[in-house]
Amino acid sequence: MKTSEILNTLNQENKELEFLLPDGESITGDLHITEIKNVNVDSTDCGGNTHSFEETIIQLWLNEESNRVADWTIEKARKIFDIVGAQRPYLMDAEAYIEFGDSNHLTSKYGFAVKDEGEKLVLQLEEEKTVCKPRLLHEIACC
After folding, report:
1. Which tens digits make up the pLDDT trace of 12-27?
2. Which of 10, 127, 128, 132 has the most crowded Cβ, counting Cβ within 10 A?
3. Do β-strands 16-20 and 120-127 pair in parallel, antiparallel, or remain unpaired?
């Protein structure tokens, strides 16, 4: 999902917002969006091919020492995105990811899909597998 798409999604009517892990477990508790990162990636793959691309990383943090359960809504998320966007312009064509980890889940970068379930908007986190880019791009193995 592109950054522009998640921003457009947050411009709809206010609804409950839920974050689901790939196994369907809801991330609940004292949950925070702690940071939104503009990331510029310059890399070289194992075949010697260079790549440059941008990502937006939305970092979620769960305060496991708290008994509080945060209420998440589109409006709450939109306010955070507005604060961040006023400081740093978003990379609108960048792929957006959610980064999350806690004591039960290793910190990972997840892709995500948006599901509108009427009165609730669900962000379904999806595992991102590593790939060999030369094989992916050229259908050959390189190393």
Report:
1. 999 999 999 999 999 9
2. 10
3. parallel
